[in-house]
Specification:
CATH superfamily: Molybdopterin biosynthesis MoaE subunit
Largest sheet: 4 strands, mixed
CATH class: Alpha Beta
CATH architecture: Alpha-Beta Complex
Number of domains: 1
Number of strands: 10
Length: 176
């Protein structure tokens, strides 16, 4: 349980960012003399060719309060499952151009295999559980891409978004 970890604020860097993600700060946060390994994933916007054209930008929106809460719970799970001593979970919101960093996750553990597995867990769970919506721009047109959050039966009991917190993405994606 999150409330049982008194040192969570020092161990886990959890943020929804409006400005560019500082990768150096993420690396610095993972430093721990008890850890012999740190694994970091950095996801960037790519100029993909899609059925609708070449991606010129991505726009992210999040239900921020629930996103941060869910990200913290994922970091705690990674600590329990993989021995993650320090974790980073950062995700941008707003409009991003190709080449810009959209997400950064990292895990520090005593050993390499756990750091890699822990980092992969952070990324995979962020993509499947955290309420972040993505709008894909191709030239002058755009479309909302469905949030990959798990089915309603698996959503947190308090998932009742406030429209002012989630913006237009929720309306377009049909938020619960």
């Amino acid at each position: 349980m999150v409330s049982d970890l008194e040192d969570v604020p020092g161990r886990f860097m959890i943020r929804i960012e409006r400005r560019p993600i500082d990768i150096d700060s993420a690396h610095f946060h993972l430093a721990d003399l008890a850890c012999g390994a740190a694994s970091v994933f950095v996801g960037t916007v790519r100029a993909d060719q899609t059925a609708h054209g070449v991606v010129s930008a991505l726009e992210y929106e999040a239900y921020e309060r629930l996103a941060r809460k869910t990200m913290l719970q994922i970091a705690v799970e990674a600590a329990e499952r993989f021995g993650v001593r320090r974790a980073v979970m950062l995700h941008r919101v707003g409009r991003l151009e190709p080449g810009e960093v959209a997400v950064c996750c990292g895990a520090a553990t005593p050993h390499r295999a756990d750091a890699i597995a822990g980092c992969e867990y952070l990324v995979d769970e962020l993509k499947t559980r955290v309420p972040i919506w993505k709008r894909e721009w191709t030239g002058d047109t755009s479309r909302w891409i469905a949030c990959d959050i798990r089915r309603a039966s698996e959503a947190p009991a308090d998932y009742a978004p406030n429209p002012s917190e989630i913006g237009s993405a929720a309306a377009a994606a049909g938020a619960r």
